[in-house]
Write the structure tokens for this entry.
Amino acid sequence: MSADRQEILEKARGYIKDEGEAVLLQAVNIGDSFVKAVETILSRKGRLIITGVGKSGLIGRKIAATMASTGTPAEFIHPVEALHGDLGMVSANDTILALSYSGGSEETNRILPLLRQQGLPVISITNQEDSRMARLSDIVLPLHLEKEACPLNIVPTSSTTATLAIGDALALSLMELKGFSRDCFAKYHPGGNLGKLLNLKVENIMHSGRENPLVSEDSTLKAALEVMSETKAGAVSVTGKDGRLSGFFTDGDLRRSMCRGLLTHGLDTKISEVMTHNPITVTPETGALQAAAVISSRHIDNLPVIDSKTGCPVGIVDEKDLLKEGLL
């Protein structure tokens, strides 16, 4: 059967629009019950146990993963497996988050009374506030959806997207209240490209030792250019008599000095007369991602790296190295 290209695109846009509207509806409708859910999870010492079957179960697994990676210990338990022994995985300090669009999931609703008997608070995300799941819950987060994006109004689409949005909102609210920082996130994500971006430090990519271009304040422009050429850097750090960084000179500074007629003695001009005083710096401990943000926002090619205690230049970060690492 042939399909009209424009018709396919229009319908696809409609499905996406319907799901987007379902998510926005949650932003309008969340209220005191959401705050109570956040406070309840925050006050408990154990894990957040998430449960659900079918598509709700798949969404539950994703919410559990997001929670765990943002500072809220969480685990997904399938209700059928729970009925066959996995209830033993639940501790007295845990909190339950149950998911079901209809609120009538037989498997999930069979374990909720057992969990409540243990004194565990139950939070549910459902579209039916008068459902059995809602009655078995201490806190209900209603979806308020009238239909799915599915043209047959059968396939879980808008409902699963909306449930995921509420789960993400819970996770991020808890993350902020717990003071979960970028450094904390990096600890939980040591692998892959994301781990590299978060854990890579300036000391891992900077040029140091013989590759670190250095001249003293009383050096000439000629001497500075020679060092820049030898190290293949487009800049040079300038040090004072105490060895601390006093300035930074780049290819751009050379062009600007020539245009402004500042090279009164040509190549014999003192570097201290044309260098940039009080340049922006980073330390070896600075995150490489942060250094990349500085270079990008300031529209510069290099950054001097100084020792945080002595103020002495110990390296240089080049834009090309950040590009190579995928940071720019």
Remarks:
- The longest helix spans residues 5-29.
- The first strand starts at residue 48 and ends at 51.
- DSSP finds 15 helices and eleven strands in the chain.
- Residues 5-180 form a domain with the Rossmann fold fold (CATH 3.40.50.10490).
